Amino acid sequence: MFRKRITLPGTLDKGNKMHIKMFGLILLLTLTLGCSRPINEVYWGDENLTRCVERTAERHNWTKINQIEWLKCPYMGISNAASLNALTSLQYLDLTGNALTRFELLEHKALIELHLTRNRLTDVKIHASALTRLELSENALKGIDLSDVPALTELSLNENELTNLDLSKNTAMERLSINRNPLTEEAEAYLMKLQKESDMYVFYLGR
Q1: What angle do CA 33, 35, 41 make, to 5 degrees?
Q2: Looking at the 3D structure of the chain, how many domains does it have?
Q3: pLDDT per residue over 96-108, tens digit each?
C-alpha cells in the first residue's frame, strides 16, 4: 500500500527546498559572471553608445564591465541607453546633449551622479539608492517620480514642462533648481514652504 505524500500550502518538501537552493546558486553565479563579462561581448543597443563605451575602455585599459565606474558620453547622438543597467559598478554617468526620449535605471546601488540635461526625455524612471546629484534640465518632462532616489541632495529640473513636484521622500535634498516650468500655484507654495521649513535652497524665478 502506497501513501501519497501531501505538501500543505505554505510548506516546502525537501525536493522543493533543493530546487530553491539550486535556483539561488544559479542566480548568484549568473550575476557574478555577468559583472565580469568582457566589454567587447556586450550588445549595447546603440551604435553611438557602443563607440563611447569601447573608446573609453580602450583609453583606460578596461576589459570587463565591472571595471567601468564612470562614463562620459555627452553630445554623441545616443538614443538608447537601456543597456547601461548592466554596469553595476557605475558611479558617474554623463549623457548630456543626446537624443534620449526615455531613461530607466533599475535597482542601481553604486551610481552617485547622473547628468541627463539637454535630451528629449518625456519618461524617466530611476531606482538608485546612492544617487546624490541628478541633472535633468532642458527636457520635456511633465512629471517625475523621485521616491526611489532617497539620498538625493542636488536636483536640476530647469526648462521642463512640470506642473507639480513631490519631494516627500527626498528629505536629504539641499538644492533644487526648477526654473522655467509651468508650476501650479499650489506647487509653488509647496516648494516655498519646504524651503522655509528645511535647509533646502529652491531656485525658481517663475514660469
Answers
A1: 80
A2: 1
A3: 999 999 999 998 9
